Each structure stands twice: as structure tokens, then as C-alpha cells.
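Encoded backbone
================
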Amino acid sequence: MAKPKGSQDSLPPAQPSYVLRGHREPIHALGFFRENSRLISGDAEGWIVVWDIYLKRPVAVWKAHQKSLLGVGSWGNDRIITWVKYLFLVVWRGSG
């Protein structure tokens, strides 16, 4: 059966415009905040990296938990929320 013209199979593979490198372990959680100017990433070892999207650089890095993160989020412009499997939620406050 012929594929319709303009199908996704006819497009070239997507290429990244930039790769952010800051974690040694697999990333388990991502979230944007500050009107999408910051990206929060959390990994399998409990590390958090807050990225400046425009500069493509980390503005804060810390070991938030001893176990893998299940999620990250924001609360307003100056608070980051992290949570892990053992139902422990932390609200971090800072200027990152």
C-alpha cells in the first residue's frame, strides 16, 4: 500500500539543536518554570540541575534526595518541588 504524500516517513530524522550535559545518571524528571526560561532536571541518583534555557548552562546543581526522583515542579518563580518514591516531598527555595 502506498504511503500518503507528506507522511512522517518521508521526513528526515530530527536533529537536536543543542544537548545539555549535566547528569551522569539517567534523567527521570523534567519541568519548565519562570515562563519557560528555566528547566529543572532530576536524575536516578537524586541530583537536581536547574538550567538557564537561554544561556544553555546550569545555574544550580545539588543532591536533593538519596534515591531516584519521580518528579519535579515549580511553585511560583522561586520555589522548586521534588518528590521521590518513598513519598517524600520537598519544597526548595532559592534564586536559581
Observations:
- The chain has no helices and seven strands.
